[in-house]
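Quiz preparation item.
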């Protein structure tokens, strides 16, 4: 907004509150004052030097991935109703305590009765040779500049930009992961011996490091940069304290925060021992009527860059300005986030510094899992925890911090395999949402309501009235669990809305689309929903339409609804290439077809791997190569294996009675029949089958969604088996079935699951949630108690009649082929960023370190060089 040179002073009887700084802490304070006072006694001015309204710095990584994303913090209504004035693009340059005024960079003077410093922090860059050429990762402008610069380097030099990120903490890993996702060769230099050494113990940090390194991000740990190597005006490398030099084009520093306490120093305010404005439990500074919140505030000698304490400070100041006596008593440094797709969380005494603390640890390096609880010496009271790879226990455990657990600690670690406890009733004071300081008691009170207002009985309304789950979102599962538990106690029906755009559950949406005969996303939204959809409802609707109509999944506007893999009809790999998986029913294949696969792999330089599903996976294909690869495969009689879709993946089979002396039924023939019948059938989650020719169970059928095991009299049918983090054995549904009855029962089971399961719900979890479980399924599938058998069988028959191989259909249509090119404006240009190294006589993706030291070969032509060329 345009500034003026006149003093800006408010009317008598209303106190002026000036908030210096326009970050998340300032937003929270302004919102709280607006909600509680609405201009009656206070009028608020917020001055921020960035040209944006306050935005969510925690979500900067999403801006890195998608430059169009809006990070503005909500609610924003207080900027519009006249009670709170927002000044952007101006900086407060001086403050006159005697005159109770402040002057901005435009010369505007603002009066204040209460002054709140929320100036935040800056990203420090150490004074090293060449450091003036370094970049930082702190603001929207920083992120946008990094995106533009990495793209420009790649275009100019015909290779990915090489980026070194100094700092292996939260921001450093966010920056490295985001830049790697943009195609840059990223490496992290960190002074600690393991990643996130301030939040994680060594075991967790090293587990995280293995996962990050496995994504192609180079790691240099226990060492610091000593100089940026500059030639002309361009960075060409960075020297490390161990004498090594890393060649690079950009160096980004993300090594912590430096409090922006310049104004405080000019005012003569007491500072913290490491900088920042010293505050007491009222968030008051050493001068009357001057407060400090957020990253600039030093409480008990410490500044923190986390959202939760900043919000808590803002609430304390809001309460104090309105006559309350709230206190800020502790810094909650619990952290939960997703770094490069990896779940990481820590809370409480994560490093077990408490005397006599006991650590319960589950570590599985092969799976990239590390989970730890810190308990008192008697193993009863929870002191803290650390999670890497699977942080699902975090939301339930964090509110129990400082309380006695009702079961053995290992039962709370999802990776341990110990049966979890039925559930601890959260005490009223348990903190559910750390970002907004919301307790379990507050949530229960909001659900119950009072005599003057109805309770919040929907998740959206509950989040709005309590603020729980509105910041980082990590507590939303627990908030939802509390809501469902309280409503169940009250006998209130639970909402099963698919998302904010559809009040219907997936099951209700499926039935509505079927009954109304809707055939497009626009029709479905117009009749049954609102808005433009989201990443939740779009793939669900795409799956529903594919199941009901069997048409080509990318036609009729459905391409934009699909997940990444479905859009490419191939599985994207970590280096941006794709895998190709032709269908090989039951693993049965002729020598001639094997020769075709071998020829394709050789011609296109693909890595080959026989999968656990008895198929051959071909890795390393570029997007523009997929049509050429599939042309050869389709001409040889292959079709898509749907390895990319939520559909039938494969039917695993032993050799059965055809060859095996123990086999009692022809398991191969049955497996082929099942795979050809259900191929391409879209469902809420992927499906896997197994057929064993005898009770020795070589096909591991009881670990599959549908398992068929031969008997002397026919087939036993098992259902609901799953692998994954929560493996489940399939359960016997029916015994000694003939071939036709077996097929009918599988038809009914699959279609009943597809119609009634929730989004992304595996068959095991679906059966657990069904009232009656297996017995209910048996009543529907075997006994036909609901009278649906004919309808369910007819739906599968329609699918079988209309099945068309997706890749064959793509190759037959030039318009469909236009999707498969590396660059929209250069359809014949292959992606220049792919690099390979030779290993065990094949070629795998190169790590960042292998790219840097020259061991990798960049692949920019039509094919990968010969084995001899790569050594």
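Solution:
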């Amino acid at each position: 907004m345009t500034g003026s040179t006149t003093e800006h002073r408010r009317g008598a009887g209303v106190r002026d509150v000036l908030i210096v700084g326009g970050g998340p802490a300032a937003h929270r304070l302004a919102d709280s004052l607006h909600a509680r006072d609405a201009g009656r006694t206070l009028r608020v001015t917020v001055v921020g030097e960035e040209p944006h309204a306050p935005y969510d710095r925690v979500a900067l990584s999403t801006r890195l991935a998608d430059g169009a994303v809006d990070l503005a913090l909500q609610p924003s209504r207080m900027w519009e109703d006249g009670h709170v004035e927002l000044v952007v693009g101006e900086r407060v340059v001086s403050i006159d305590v005697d005159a109770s005024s402040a002057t901005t960079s435009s010369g505007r003077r603002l009066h204040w009765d209460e002054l709140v410093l929320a100036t935040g922090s800056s990203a420090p860059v150490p004074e090293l040779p060449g450091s003036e050429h370094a970049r930082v990762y702190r603001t929207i402008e920083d992120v946008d500049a990094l995106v533009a610069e990495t793209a420009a380097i790649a275009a100019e030099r015909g290779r990915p930009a090489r980026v070194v990120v100094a700092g292996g903490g939260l921001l450093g890993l966010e920056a490295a992961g985001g830049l790697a996702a943009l195609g840059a060769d990223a490496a992290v230099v960190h002074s600690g011996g393991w990643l996130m050494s301030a939040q994680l113990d060594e075991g967790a940090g090293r587990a995280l490091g293995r996962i990050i390194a496995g994504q192609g991000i180079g790691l240099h740990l226990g060492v610091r940069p000593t100089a940026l190597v500059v030639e002309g005006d361009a960075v060409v490398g960075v020297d490390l304290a161990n004498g090594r030099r890393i060649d690079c084009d950009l160096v980004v520093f993300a090594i912590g925060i430096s409090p922006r306490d310049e104004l405080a120093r000019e005012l003569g305010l007491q500072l913290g021992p490491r900088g920042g404005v010293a505050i007491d439990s009222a968030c008051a500074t050493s001068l009357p009527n001057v407060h400090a919140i957020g990253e600039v505030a030093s409480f008990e000698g410490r500044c923190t860059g986390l959202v939760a304490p900043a919000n808590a400070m803002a609430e304390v100041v809001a309460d104090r300005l309105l006559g309350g006596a709230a206190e800020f008593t502790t810094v909650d440094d619990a952290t939960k986030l997703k770094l490069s797709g990896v779940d990481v969380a820590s809370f409480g005494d994560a490093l077990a510094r408490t005397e006599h603390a006991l650590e319960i640890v589950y570590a599985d390096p092969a799976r990239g899992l590390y989970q730890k609880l810190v308990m008192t010496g008697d193993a009863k009271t929870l002191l803290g925890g650390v999670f890497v790879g699977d942080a699902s226990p975090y939301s339930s455990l964090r509110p129990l911090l400082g309380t006695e657990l009702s079961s053995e600690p290992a039962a709370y670690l999802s990776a341990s395999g110990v049966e979890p406890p039925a559930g601890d009733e959260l005490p009223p004071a348990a903190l559910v949402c750390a970002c907004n300081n919301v307790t379990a008691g507050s949530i229960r009170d909001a659900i119950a309501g009072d005599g003057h207002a109805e309770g919040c009985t929907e998740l959206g309304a509950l989040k709005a009235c309590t603020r729980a789950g509105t910041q980082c979102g990590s507590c939303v599962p627990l908030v939802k669990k509390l809501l469902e538990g309280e409503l169940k106690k009250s006998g209130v029906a639970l909402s099963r809305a698919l998302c904010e755009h559809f009040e219907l559950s997936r099951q209700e949406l499926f039935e509505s689309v079927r009954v109304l005969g809707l055939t497009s996303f626009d029709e479905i939204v117009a009749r049954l929903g609102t808005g433009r959809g989201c990443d939740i409802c779009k793939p669900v609707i795409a799956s529903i339409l594919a199941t009901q109509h069997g048409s080509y999944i990318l036609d009729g506007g459905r391409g934009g609804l699909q997940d990444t893999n479905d859009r490419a009809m191939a599985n994207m790999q970590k280096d941006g290439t794709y895998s190709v998986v032709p269908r090989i029913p039951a693993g049965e294949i002729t020598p001639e077809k094997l020769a075709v696969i071998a020829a394709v792999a050789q011609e296109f330089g693909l890595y080959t791997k026989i999968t656990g599903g008895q198929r051959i996976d071909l890795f390393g294909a570029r997007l523009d190569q997929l049509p050429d690869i599939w042309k050869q495969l389709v001409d040889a009689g292959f079709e898509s294996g749907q390895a990319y879709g939520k559909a039938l993946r494969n039917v695993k089979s032993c050799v059965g009675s055809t060859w095996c002396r123990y086999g009692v039924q022809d398991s191969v023939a049955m497996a082929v029949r099942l795979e050809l019948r259900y191929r391409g059938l879209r469902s809420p989650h992927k499906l896997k089958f197994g057929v064993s020719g005898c009770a020795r169970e070589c096909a591991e059928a009881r670990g599959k969604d549908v398992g068929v095991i031969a008997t002397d009299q026919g087939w036993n049918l098992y259902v609901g088996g799953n692998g994954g983090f929560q493996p489940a054995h399939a359960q016997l549904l029916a015994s000694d079935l003939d071939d036709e009855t077996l097929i009918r029962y599988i038809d009914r089971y699959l279609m009943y699951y597809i119609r009634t399961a929730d989004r992304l719900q595996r068959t095991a979890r679906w059966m657990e949630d069904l009232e009656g479980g297996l017995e209910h399924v048996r009543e529907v599938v075997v006994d036909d108690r609901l009278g649906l058998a004919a309808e369910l069988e007819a739906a599968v028959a329609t699918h079988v009649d209309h099945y068309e191989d997706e890749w064959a259909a793509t190759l037959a249509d030039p318009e469909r082929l236009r999707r498969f090119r590396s660059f929209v404006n250069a359809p014949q240009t292959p992606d220049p960023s792919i690099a390979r190294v030779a290993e065990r006589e094949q070629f795998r993706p190169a790590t960042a370190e292998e790219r840097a030291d020259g061991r990798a070969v960049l692949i920019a032509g039509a094919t990968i060089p010969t084995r001899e060329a790569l050594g």
